[in-house]
Amino acid sequence: MSQITTHILDTSTGAPAENVPLNLSQLADGQWSELASGTTNEDGRVSGLLADGRILEAGDYKMVFDTASYFGSTGVRGFYPRVEIIFAIDGDGQHYHIPLLLSPFGYSTYRGS
Q: Which of 6, 61, 74, 94 is the most exposed, fewest CB within 10 Å of its CB?
């Protein structure tokens, strides 16, 4: 399993958010560098965002979700065109799950398991 995973639920429909483009980046020397990208499946997840067994070093990372693309595909105009979630990891190889609860006019996240 990927060390970093995500799951997006559209709380306005009560269903997983399918076809949400996203990318994962790492902060190094004051610059963000993209590590991986993907698009959510019918369950609102991206399988294999990182290769199995890949362990990220300690530091700051961010996931950027293209919510404008998602809401545009559903015919809804959202307020937030992108959601950026910046988080820090310890570099000890543990799993980090980044869920996103999404609606056209708000979002919430937390560290899942």
A: 94
Question: Would you give the DSSP letter of residue 1?
Answer: -
**4 CB contacts (<8 Å, ≥6 apart)?**
24, 49, 50, 56, 61, 63, 96, 97, 98
Specify the CATH superfamily of domain 4-109. Transthyretin/hydroxyisourate hydrolase domain (2.60.40.180)
- The ranges assigned to domains in the chain are 4-109
pLDDT in tens, 61-107: 999 999 999 999 999 999 999 999 999 999 889 999 999 999 999 99
Which is it for strands 15-16 and 31-39: parallel, antiparallel or unpaired? unpaired
Residue 85 has which token pair?
């979630």
